[in-house]
Amino acid sequence: MWRAAAVCVVCQSLANSSYGVKGKSPLQKLRLVSRSIHHPHSKFQRPPLRASIQQFSSLNRLPLRKTKLLFVKYGYLPHRNFWVARLASRLLKLRYLVLGSAVGGGYTAKKTYDQWKEMLPDLSDYKWIVPDFIWELDEHIDFEKLSKALPDAEDLAKLLPDFDKIGESLSSLKGFFSPGSQGETAFRATDQGYENDKQYKKVSDKEKIDQLQEELLHTQLKYQRILERLEKENKELRKLVLQKDDKGIHQRNLKKSLIDMYSEVLDILSDYDASYNTQDHLPRVVVVGDQSAGKTSVLEMIAQARIFPRGSGEMMTRSPVKVTLSEGPHHVALFKDSSREFDLTKEEDLAALRNEIEIRMRKSVKEGCTVSAETISLNVKGPGLQRMVLVDLPGVISTVTSGMAPDTKDTIFSISKAYMQNPNAIILCIQDGSVDAERSIVTDLVSQMDPHGKRTIFVLTKVDLAEKNVSSPNRIQQIIEGKLFPMKALGYFAVVTGKGNSSESIESIKEYEEEFFQNSKLLKTCMLKAHQVTTRNLSLAVSDCFWKMVRESVEQQADAFKATRFNLETEWKNNYPRLRELDRNELFEKAKNEILDEVISLSQVTPKHWEEILQKTLWERVSTHVIENIYLPAAQATNSGTFNTTVDIKLKQWTDKQLPNKAVEVAWETLQEEFSHFMTEKKGKEHDDIFDKLKQAVKEESIKRHKWNERAEDSLRVIQHNTLEDRSISDKQQWDAAIHFMEDTLQSRLKDTESVIEDMVGPDWKKRWLYWVGRTKEQNIRNETKNELEKMIKCNEDHAAYLANDEVTTVRKNLEAKGVAVDPCLIKDTWHQVYRRHFLRTALSHCNLCRRGFYYYQRHFVDSELECNDVVLFWRIQRMLAITANTLRQQLTNTEVRRLEKNVKEVLEDFAEDSDKKVKLLTGKRVQLAEDLKKVREIQEKLEAFIEALHQEK
User: Fold this and answer.
1) pLDDT tens, residue by residue, 331-344
2) Which of 172, 260, 582, 673 could disulfide-link 256, Cβ–Cβ 3.0 to 4.6 Å?
3) CB atoms within 10 A of CB 428
4) CA quadruple 920, 926, 932, 938: dihedral sign
5) Of 329, 323, 353, which Cα lies nearest the Cα of 341?
């Protein structure tokens, strides 16, 4: 009886309580009741099983609350009248309540663990949203042991009463009650609740998934904002620390950052081989994509500044640009070969930087080309920038348009392949999402270079336009997952780089990108995962991949360069054992010092040497004019007055028009000859022919730049004119010198004339007899003509310089009488040489007579048949030559040599800044070997320093 009483009391308490108000299911209460019935004296040590009717959330875990036990009071009911009827009514009421609770609780209890698992979505992709300490609970709580301790479904079913039999009993009693009774109402309420619960369960599954996705998205954005806020605070703190270090507050020397050290290694490699033939395996992030695919915009978002020149549809990237990103207190950019810093927070500096990049690109492109393989190195520093090295390559094109070189497409392909064939290069493949995937060219190229996608990161740009224009959003998902391309990749990313307005700021683009992805269906429908969107996530992923690749490959590369260095050093020792290892710059400095020493040697040339050379060279240039145009015409005069008058007129004309200019030309050529002599003179065993080409180029360029002082001719003209007007020979020594000068000149001319006559008439009888040579027909005619003309001169030794027409006719007829047909022109030409020889012989004989004529000269040839006016003429010429040489020598030593030395220094300075000139002028195996050895040593040392710093950072 006491058990029945306990059941009544417990059931009454169940009836009085509110069903499901506090989220406790009937199953829980029934479980407690059943345990209290079968185990009235046991204590509960395990937490009860609970099934929640609330919607499931990955972020809202239901707390385990203890269930209070119901204490059953034992005792007897007070005695009442009609106790049988009342007892029956209470028993029926108890059955209704037990039936309603059994239906609801039985529906819940029959749900197994596997059924509930199938109802829930797969949340494995969103594990990153839940804080890490949730997943670490399994380290502190043994869930497996706990699950074994809890009762399973079969044990739970044994504890419950047989609800099927209870239902059959209740259905048999249903007919005893009239409609509208309390029992019928309870049944209807229970049935209606059961139907509502079934309908609610059917509808809520979809709502649960939608609500869960909404919660995930909002939670993701929440954590994203928190992360960005923390990163911003971290950026500000690092900026303060770096600023303090810059100001020297900590009084310590700051070491170069890892990325700066690594970038220096890459710069040295670029200088070592600009054509990228060394095949070094040091990692770089190579940015490739079709033209106008958004490569520049992605790089600018990563660098946090608009640093690249832009153009609508025009090719702007004409050469590779290596961008080194590193942390720093200020957001600045600077070139490798320049000390100027561009403040990236100021628009005027940004514009100047873009202009400078464009200028450098155009300078690197050779004439007749559109793109260049020469790399432009740029460092960008700023707080919070991800450390990495990116190389922006020219966009791949499919068609060569007008204005481009014919080989532009092939050149771009070769440059891209050269960078991508590095097995450790990270390929950042940029694809425009707003155009058809089939139009992409770069994906085929990337697939060739990295067929397994082990070092490729795929980036889809302009996703906002793609979502608007693409009718099927699944196509974007297929592009991201690489299903529309033959290429594979490490990761796939989708970014938005602005609305297409070049004046947009980076901050506004960030806000637009965040707002787009927050409202985009691509995330809400799980086409894209949260870590696959935004340029910030892309930057983090690329940086992590870059440093992972660097750590894995840098030591191997250092060993490779160490082996290369050993091979080069061995080759040098075997080929050049007694020479120092001088690279191209060191050789140039050595050659520069030698050239400057040789230029200084010009100032040490004696004045006597200068004057002798100048006088000799000047007379060689003007002697023909003096003899042919001045002396011979004047010598035809019949008296001394006419001779002197003719000489004075012709000398005046010569001085005004030709002589000064000719003298300056002679002086300049003499200076060049002396300069060349010193430059090319071999200095015995110490002479190094490796400098010959450089010295020749310096000499030619210096002479090309040198211009003689224009005022020199005017002053020289006055000096020469005054000198030639002087006829007074002061002493016998000068007279004898003039006669000697005249004799040398006439003998030289006579020798030349005889040589010409010999060529005209052929060899004489001695040469014909000794050397068995004969005369030609023309030479025989010339010889007969010469003999006839010589007879004419013998008859009249004072004959004029020219033949009269009747004399030509006479000679021709005489030759025809001998059977020799002669042209009148041949007669005149032969006469010119015959008369010239006769005149020179006569002048030489007259010169001998004038040796003792100085006495008559002092008396002005009064009462003397001897007239030596030609000796005076040669004295005037000789004195003019001496004074001109002295004047030119002074001008050379005082002015022109110094100006030439200055030009040489300027040329050497220009050559020192022109690396192409050095490579062209300093050539040979020895130079190249020393150059390679120095570069490899430098690369190896830089790599070892970088590896040491990398280990210290670890």
Assistant:
1) 999 998 888 899 99
2) 260
3) 27
4) negative
5) 353
